[in-house]
Structures are given as C-alpha cells and as structure tokens.
Design goal:
The complex is a heterodimer of chains A (276) and B (609).
Chain A lengths: L1 E6 L6 H14 L4 E4 L2 E3 L3 E3 L5 E3 H9 L11 E5 L5 E5 L2 E6 L7 H18 L2 E5 L17 H7 L3 E6 L5 H11 L8 E9 L7 H11 L2 E7 L22 H18 L4 H9 L1
Parallel strand pairs in A: 1-9, 1-10, 2-9, 3-6, 10-11, 11-12
Antiparallel strand pairs in A: 4-5, 6-7, 7-8
Chain B lengths: L1 H13 L37 E4 L5 E4 L9 H14 L8 H13 L4 E7 L6 H14 L4 E4 L2 E3 L3 E3 L5 E3 H9 L12 E5 L4 E6 L2 E7 H27 L2 E5 L17 H7 L2 E7 L5 H11 L2 H4 L2 E9 L4 H5 L1 H8 L3 E6 L18 E2 L4 E6 L4 E2 L12 E6 L10 E4 L1 E2 L2 H10 L2 H8 L5 E4 L1 H5 L3 E4 L10 E4 L7 E3 L5 E10 L6 E9 L1 E3 L6 E3 L8 E3 L1 E3 L4 E4 L8 H8 L3 E2 L2 E2 L8 H19 L2 H10 L2
Parallel strand pairs in B: 3-11, 3-12, 4-11, 5-8, 12-13, 13-14, 16-18, 16-19, 19-21, 21-31, 22-24
Antiparallel strand pairs in B: 1-2, 6-7, 8-9, 9-10, 15-18, 17-20, 22-23, 24-27, 25-26, 25-28, 28-29, 30-31, 32-33
Helix pairs in contact in B: 4-5, 4-16
Classes of the chains: A alpha/beta (276), B alpha/beta (609).
Chain lengths: 276, 609
C-alpha cells in the first residue's frame, strides 16, 4: 500500500499529517515507512550510515518506529545562499545547483524511483510526502516529488489544505484543477487541516468540493498547539536529536496528536485509496 | 450666518488662491486641496448628495456639510471664481449662487466608482494593495476613500469625530491623502472579546455583542447589509473612487450567502473586483484559480484582475506561467508584485502569531503579551530606534530586558489575573525601580493599586476587586458599560516638555493620586486636563493614550531612561512616526506602480457601474 500526501501550499501540514498517518499505521501493525522524494530544507538529519536527509523524514521514521535512512529522502536541496543550492543525492553531496548548472533531473527522478522501490519492497505501507504545492504552473513539468512521482510510479494521492489562513476550499479545488489531467484521477481525497470550531459549519462547502472534483473528504483535523518541530525552525538541531529529550518529547506529542486525529480521519477510506 | 457671510465676502474679494499652505490647518481635508473657499459660498446648499440636516443643540435644524469635498477641488474653485467674475457677484448670499451651484454640480459632480480588493486568504496583502491603489490614484489627482465594510481587529484608532475605526483604514486614508479618516470608511468593526463573542461597533460606537452564529443569523441579514449600503453610498457621493477591502477569502462557499465583507459588499456597492494572492507560501496559482472558479457565476464576472503579490527573488519563472493561468482563469493578471520591503503596521494579531522577538536593535524591550492584547501597534515606532522587542508570555521572558511595556488589553481583569497566576506580576514588582516600565491603557490600569470591577463590567463577574501591580496609588473602576473614545493632543509635563498626540479607547476610569505625565485637551474640549501618572525616580510611567510613541518627544524621553549594558540608548531616528509611514506608503505605491498595469487598473475603474 502507498499514498502520496500533497499540500495546497508550503506549511499546509504535510509533514505532520504524514507523521500522524505513520504513527497510526504503526499502531495498526501495517509496517509503514516514510518517503519524501525531494526536500528543500536547510534542516537535515545525519543517518546512522552517515547520510544526510531532511529532518522531517527522521521524525516520520521515528513515528513508524524505524531508524531514519537515506532512502526515506533520496534528494535533499540545501540553499547555501547566493543563488547556489547544494544537492544532496542518496545522502551525499552531489552537485551545486546554480542558474547555469541546473539539477540533473533525470538522475534525481531515477534515484527517487529506486529508493521508493526498495522501501516499498521492504515495508507494508509507503507514506509519501509531496513537496510544496503540486500546482505551481511554472514548475509542474519539472516537478519531481509531486506530479513527477505520480507520473513515474502511479501513486494515489490525497491533498492537505490549511484552513487557518482561509480560502481552503479554493485552495483544494484550484490545486485539483491545476494538476495535469493525466495524473488528476490519482488524486482521490482531501483533508482539511488546522480547523478551530464546530466542523458542521463546513459541511456545505465540503460537499460542494466533493461534487466538483469527485474527491472524498477524509476528515477535518483540529487545530492543535503542537511542539512538532517545524522543518525550517530546527536549524540548531542537526543530527543531535537521537536519544535526546527533544526526541522523546516529540514522540509523546506525536501520540497525543495521533490520538486526537484518529477520531477525525477516515483511515478506512485512506487504506482503500492506498490499495487502489 | 453673518459671520460666514463676512468670510465669504472676503473670499470673493480675494479671488482664486489655490492651496493655502500658510494656513495652520492646511490641508484640513486632503493633500492638494484648494482653499479658495474655506467657507462655502453655497452654504446652505441643502443638496442631499453633499450634506444632511442635523438637529442642533437648541433643537434647531442645522445643515451639515462637513464631509463635502466638492468645494475644495481646484477646477470647481476656478470655475466659481470665473463665474462670479462674469456675473459681477460681490456679496455672499447672492441668489445667483443657486444657479452656479447647479452648474458646478452638472459639470463636476458625479457618483464615484467603487473597486474592491479581495484576497485568496487572510494575509494575502489586501490591506497594502488597497493602500497602494489609494496612493496611486491620489497621485493622479483623484479623490479616493478606502472602505472596509466589516473588519475584525484589535488595532483601532479614533477619528476626529470621536469614532473608533480599524487602524488599517486610517493608514489607507492617509495613503489616499486624506487628513481625517472617518467612520464611514469602516462602518462595522468587530472586536473579539473572548473566543466566540465579539463587540460589534457600528460607525465607531459600541452597538452590541454577538457570537458567531447570531452575528450571521441576525446582524448580517438585518442591519448589516443596510449599514454597508448606506456607508458605501455615502462615500461614493463624495469621492471619485472608493477602494474597498474584503475580509478573509471571498470563496468560503459554506457561508457565501451570508457575506457582507467580500462579494456581498461588492454587489451592494456595484464594484468590480481585484483578487490578490500571496505568492510567498506557494500554491498561489491554485489559490487564485480555485477562488475564481468557486465564486458563483453571477458574481464571478465582477472579478476583473488578479494581482500576484509578495514574490521573493526573480519573477521570471513565475511570469512564464501567466498566459496559461489567464487562459484557465479567464481573468487577466494585472500585477506581479515583488516583496516590498516597507515598514507598515500589521493589521491584526496574525502579525504576532508565533513571533517571539522583533527588531534588530541592541536594547531589549519586553512587551507583555496579554492573551487579550489590544492596540499593540503602539509599539511599532520603537522599531525605528536601536531596539528589539521580546514578547513576554512567562516570567522568565523578562530576564535580561532593559525596559518593559505593558500594552493595552481588551480585558484588564482577566489579563491581570493571567499575569498574577503566571508570575509575571511578581517579577515586574521585583524589577520596579531597576528598569523603566510603561503601561498604556489596560497596562496602565494594571499598574495601579486596585482594579475594582465590583459591577462585573470588565470581567463579567460582579464583586471582582483585585490588586494591581501597586506601582501607582491609583484605582481603576468600571462604573457603567461605557467607553471613552477620544482623540487627544497635549503636552508633556516631564522632561523637556513637548507635544504629544494620541487617542483614548477604554472602558473604565482611573482615580489618580499621582503626578500627571501629560496635560491634554481635545481641540474642542474644555480646558487642559491632567493625564497619566509618573514616578520618575522609579522610572514608572502610565497613560491612557495610545500612539504615545508616535511623536518623538515622549519616545525620546522614555528611551532616555533605558540603558543596555550600562550604556544609554541613542535615539537615532527622532522623526515622527507619521512622516516615516508617509515615506513607506510612497515606497509601497512605487513598488506596485512599477509592477502593476496601472492602465488596466484605470480601465477597470472606468468600466464599472
């Protein structure tokens, strides 16, 4: 089983939702593993075998009860200033990406597909996280972690929209509209994240989006004040989390979050999507 | 009347004078106004497009045209002066003024056009876009008014007429070159009181408290729509353009039919609409397309342009996708605007969410972040100086601060309790006399000996009497459910003296037994009144005046008590905050003007109605 969690924007809550799904699937004994083809982040984690991956996948790995490994995030892009981005491939520095020296997209896509296949053959459920928004019109054809992954591997997907800043129905509908038609049927569900209030007020809006897109709403997740370390706010924690208080504090928090969200998210529907 | 006649006679004799920059009050209405007729020769014109009847203090009918701007437009003044010359009119009250008034109306008067700016999300950049458009149109000689039908904000200001409106509309009216923002520009102001209840202010005065449900079920379909209609009409009668700002997203389809803040208001005002999207978070094409497509077809046609806002870095790649976006959306993109590096006050607590520190100065000022913090734009001018702010949420956040600001709060009683329970109050008592502490409004009330809410007006629990910080021998009391809303000017009674301006917005009054900090008197009030409290030897300052750091004398005075590592803080930028805002509005408008299709904007404005 596998599912790709896409976000309608950066910060929509993809990383957290993936970690929560991982935690739930682990509790269910479904042997989940996290995967994010491409991460754009300065915050990385050093795996035991000396590779470098995005910190988000380390947290997700722990949520699965696994040790982080480089396959979980085969491509890491680290902006190093002055228009230069260091590309980390399979955990090792690979090239400096600049305007004149673009990323070797084909190699990256291959690396992503290989890593995914290994994880998929070793685990029961691959929980894939998208990168940014999948609907950046100017970037779609060069995309790796969202549309790229769907095209290459046919992974079914769900969309996470953040309601806190408003316009969530527009974000979900607009994202769905902009995902190229060849992969659009793979996007089968959506989740509304960070809601404060009584969810019934959203009913008519959710139904309208379901009618317009044919996607299913898998749930409305509550706004929670979490100590989940945001990928981009952990600059001082590189590789220092293992066995630390931060890690156990995170796991306690992760359990609280999973408890709260398990009630709101339709996991049966999610598994159905993951099997399709 | 005789006095007005005498003035008009003098004006007729003087002829056309244009803007009178020598006048102390210039510009009393808007930048670039014509002052030939400081007193209107048509008075009382009794033209209900321009004014209205009021009942005076002695019960008589008075023609009120204080908000008419027609007589201050240059072409109008020139025309009147020419006609007066041709007809040989020398005396006020000449019956032929009626004819000239008719001619002026035919030639120069038309209903203004409304344009609305909606955002795909909160924080999309609506407010700054409205401010930028106001300034761009003002630069082209148009008379412009900002408008936001319904604003939920804890940051408000007081108009000259003593009404409370959202801070951001006062900023936008400044961008429009207007001297005096008025309550028509933000007729409905929601001030959150708790998690679900808001105090609804109508035309700047408390109206009633509503929870979310009753607001949408009762207020919106009842008085709400009518209030929006009346006020937008009022502005359209007096200005060339009314630039309206939406609230949140216009595509919240679950509450679409109950909306009076976005497309609902656009319909009432017959306004065309521009959609603004913040590119910084990603997904902006999706947000824009989804918003347009979710708006019901009958209203969708109002959307005439999209502005992509707040792009960091190169816009080339982004621009390459615009033709495709336009094809899908059926709406032209009229602006691709880079991130503008300007200093403008943030609209509401969104701007504070998750923010722990702000500024990059050496000296550290702790601002206690009450759960019900209000009017925290008060601290913005501090960032002009060598200052950083840390938002204090627990006692330990006060470690190492060089000064403390206790800002305003929507609820002095519950926030005093919060501060007592979490230990901040005791920590402040320890810091007394060691570093300067200033309290503003609610923060000032807390600095007193006693907070007496026996009537339960502030906190909702009758019989509440609690200890304050005890820094001043004052008692704050809530006698009745009433609010003091006043715009004040005055002078400092401490330091080197100097002028202060500010505004009061509070429930509850203080019984003061301390040396006053200021002496204030509203322009039309009775004599000067003492205001605030000061104990200079203990570096304790308290005042009800918001905006107290805007003008340099008090800012400089307060900072003169602050030292960091034993060194006094230099007050580098000693200009008034107003001047700096003016500069930043210009910078903002420059960025928009350079990256926006202004002809398209003018076309949209010309094409509506």
């Amino acid at each position: 089983m596998r599912v790709l969690v896409l976000g309608t924007s950066s910060g929509a809550g993809k990383t957290t939702v993936c970690a929560m799904i991982c935690r739930h699937l682990m509790r269910e004994g479904l042997d989940p593993v996290p995967f994010k083809a491409l991460n754009l982040s300065l915050n990385s984690y050093a795996t035991r075998d000396g590779g470098e991956i995005g910190i988000g996948q380390a947290f997700q790995a722990w949520s699965c009860g696994l040790e982080p490994e480089t396959d979980m995030n085969p491509i890491l892009l680290k902006p190093s200033g002055g228009g230069v981005i260091q590309m980390v491939l399979r955990g090792k520095p690979h090239q400096d990406v600049t305007k004149d020296c673009p990323m070797d997209r084909a190699a990256a896509m291959d690396a992503a597909a290989e890593a995914y296949s290994r994880l998929s053959s070793e685990h029961g459920f691959v929980v894939c996280e998208g990168s940014g928004s999948p609907a950046e019109l100017n970037l779609i054809e060069r995309d790796i972690a969202n549309v790229g992954l769907m095209r290459r591997l046919g992974i079914p997907a769900i969309l996470v929209g953040d309601i806190e800043r408003g316009g969530v129905f527009a974000a979900i509908y607009g994202t769905w509209l902009l995902i190229p038609e060849d992969v659009r049927p793979l996007v089968k569900g959506f989740v509304i994240n960070r809601f404060r209030g009584e969810p019934s007020i959203l009913r008519s809006g959710i139904e309208e989006v379901e009618r317009l897109t044919g996607m299913r709403c898998l749930g409305v997740l509550p706004y929670m004040h979490l100590r989940f370390p945001d990928e981009d706010s952990l600059s001082s924690s590189e590789g220092k989390l293992e066995g630390s208080d931060a890690r156990s504090a995170f796991m306690d928090n992760m359990d609280e979050l999973t408890d709260a969200c398990e009630r709101e998210l339709d996991f049966e529907a999610l598994e159905e999507i993951a099997r399709s | 009347m005789d006095c007005i006649k005498k003035k008009v006679n003098e004006e007729l004799e003087a002829g056309w004078i244009g803007p009178n920059t020598a006048c102390d009050y210039h510009p009393c209405h808007f930048t670039g106004q014509d002052c030939t007729f400081c007193y209107c020769p048509f008075y009382p014109c009794e033209d209900e497009d321009l004014g209205s009847w009021l009942i005076g203090r002695r019960g008589q009918r008075v023609w009120n045209c204080t908000e008419c701007l027609l007589i201050h437009r240059q072409p109008v003044c020139r025309y009147i002066v020419d006609r007066v010359g041709e007809l040989g009119i020398t005396q006020a009250g000449d019956p032929r003024f009626k004819d000239i008034h008719g001619e002026v109306k035919d030639r120069f008067y038309r209903m203004g056009r409304a344009l609305m700016v909606v955002g795909a999300t909160s924080d999309a950049g609506k407010s700054v876009t409205v401010a930028a458009i106001c300034r761009i149109l003002h630069r082209r000689g148009l008379l412009v008014a900002p408008f936001k039908s319904q604003n939920m904000s804890l940051n408000s200001k007081v108009t000259m007429g003593g009404s409370e409106i959202a801070m951001i509309q006062t900023l936008q009216s400044k961008a429009a070159g207007l001297k005096n923002p008025d309550s028509h520009m933000n007729p409905i102001l929601l001030k959150p009181k708790g998690d679900t209840v808001s105090q609804v202010m109508v035309l700047g005065k408390p109206y009633a408290d509503y929870d979310v449900e009753s607001y949408y079920d009762e207020f919106v379909p009842g008085p709400g729509r009518e209030i929006v209609r009346e006020n937008v009409e009022f502005l359209k009668k007096r200005y060339d353009c009314v630039i309206m700002e939406g609230a949140g997203s216009p595509a919240e389809i679950n509450i679409y039919d109950r909306d009076i803040a976005n497309m609902g208001a656009a319909k009432i005002a017959d306004a065309d609409v521009i959609l603004v999207v913040n590119v910084d978070w990603g997904g902006s094409f999706a947000y824009a397309l989804g918003t347009i497509r979710l708006i019901p077809e009958e209203d969708r046609g109002r959307i005439k342009g999209v502005i992509f806002n707040n792009i960091r870095g190169s816009t080339d790649s982004f621009r390459s996708a615009i033709p495709e976006f336009e094809r899908l959306a059926g709406v032209p993109v009229i602006g691709v605007v880079p991130h503008a590096d300007v200093v403008l006050p943030s609209e509401d607590s969104e701007g504070l969410r998750g923010v722990r520190t702000k500024g990059d100065g050496k000296c550290l000022i702790g601002v206690v972040r009450f759960p019900r913090i209000a009017n925290f734009t008060d601290i913005d001018p501090l960032f002009l100086e060598d200052v950083s702010v840390v938002f204090v949420e627990q006692a330990s956040d006060l470690d190492g601060v060089d000064a403390v600001v206790l800002p305003g709060t929507k609820n002095t009683v519950t926030d005093m309790r919060w501060m007592t329970e979490n230990g901040i109050a005791d920590k402040l008592r320890e810091l007394r006399g060691k570093i300067p502490i200033v309290g503003i409004c609610g923060g000032y009330q807390m600095m007193g000996r006693t907070i007496d809410d026996s009537n339960g007006i502030e906190g909702g629990v009758p019989g509440t009497v609690m200890e304050g910080l005890g820094f001043f021998d004052n008692t704050a009391r809530w006698g009745a459910y009433e609010k003091r809303i006043a715009n004040c000017t005055g002078r400092m009674l401490v330091g080197e003296g100097g002028e202060v301006t500010g505004y009061e917005l509070h429930m509850g009054m203080s019984e003061v037994n301390e040396k006053p900090l200021f002496e204030i008197g509203g322009r039309f009030d009775s004599g000067p009144q003492p205001e605030g409290s000061v104990r200079e030897d203990e570096m304790l300052f308290g005042t009800y005046l918001h905006g107290i750091f805007d003008r340099k004398p008090f800012r400089k005075y307060f900072l003169s008590f602050v030292s960091h590592d034993g060194r006094r803080v230099d007050t580098a930028d000693t200009r008034d905050y107003d001047e700096i805002m003016e500069e930043n509005i210009d910078k903002l408008a420059d960025v928009f003007e350079a990256n926006m299709d202004v002809d398209a904007l003018m076309g949209i404005l010309g094409g509506s109605q």
